[in-house]
Amino acid sequence: MKKHKREKAVALRYDHLTDKAPVVTAKGQGELAQRIIELAKEYGIPVEENQLLANYLMAIDLYEEIPPVLYPVIAEILAFIYRMNHKYEDGMRYGDETL
Known about the structure:
Elements: E1 8-13, E2 23-29, H1 31-42, H2 51-58, H3 71-89
């Protein structure tokens, strides 16, 4: 099996109707991180590659909300995902030049 550097991955859930803030739902390093990323891609869940942010999120307990200090950066990521989903639903594809 291919060796991975100590890559980290953290999965977040956010439902604006039920959650006050995004919640950490999975986290891991190495092979577990790779599996989290693979599952996200398999289910069409967007993946943001930001190891610095992952380092901060790794310190949060599972099923705990992210702290307010991380709201701005997570909000930017969620806004980007929202825009991409909207464009995708309107018939564009992620590889289109118009994105």
